[in-house]
Amino acid sequence: xxxxxxxxxxxxxxxxxxxxxxxxxxxxxxxxxxxxxxxxxxxxxxxxxxxxxxxxxxxxxxxxxxxxxxxxxxxxxxxxxxxxxxxxxxxxxxxxxxxxxxxxxxxxxxxxxxxxxxxxxxxxxxxxxxxxxxxxxxxxxxxxxxxxxxxxxxxxxxxxxxxxxxxxxxxxxxxxxxxxxxxxxxxxxxxxxxxxxxxxxxxxxxxxxxxxxxxxxxxxxxxxxxxxxxxxxxxxxxx
Length: 239
Prior knowledge:
The protein is mainly α and 239 residues long. It has two domains: 14-139, Potassium Channel Kv1.1, Chain A (2-Layer Sandwich), CATH 3.30.710.10; 143-234, no CATH class. The chain is built from eleven helices and three strands; from the N terminus they run ββαααβαααααααα. It has helices at 57-61, 65-71, 77-81, 91-102, 113-122, 126-139, 145-157, 162-171, 176-180, 190-206, 212-226; strands spanning 43-48, 51-56, 83-85. Strands 2-1-3 form a three-stranded mixed β-sheet. Strand 1 (43-48) and strand 2 form a beta hairpin. Mean pLDDT is 81; it is low at 1-17.
């Protein structure tokens, strides 16, 4: 009666290639908004990409428990030397992050929440993490496929939870092949990729004219196909 073809997902790790989610930020940052006199007793030196940024320690310790632990304890070399090296970080992204700690700013469509979010999550700047999460919650309804996939990648990186992930996946429209061709799709974990595939397939089958018994057989077969691909217990449903 019909042919069901299942394509196994191949996950490509593009974690090191997330640069395309960012853009040049340094030009948007006014350095004098967060720097201080390097000879000040409260000055801390951040070393990023071989360059030094002089920042008041209060800016770091009042916003981040991670920096607070580093700087307020002589057990850590950072507390002794007042110098923090940030290997693997980018100068413009760190400057962007510091600017948000210094001045009150809204999160809007022009905000690079992907660059900002990664640093907020790593250094546990909870109030800014919540602002980013709130922005995603308010804006996913008008987001296109590309942006929704970016939001999903962000929810994984920042551990926003399965509830928001379920909502974002439910907003994805179009055929799975179209969705999976976006470069942003490859940034997602295998679990999220398979979750998207299952939901998409479930929606597709709802629109096909099968008897209830045939639908149940198809659902059982589909679930067995996907069983070894992820740990997420999401059933195919025709409700």
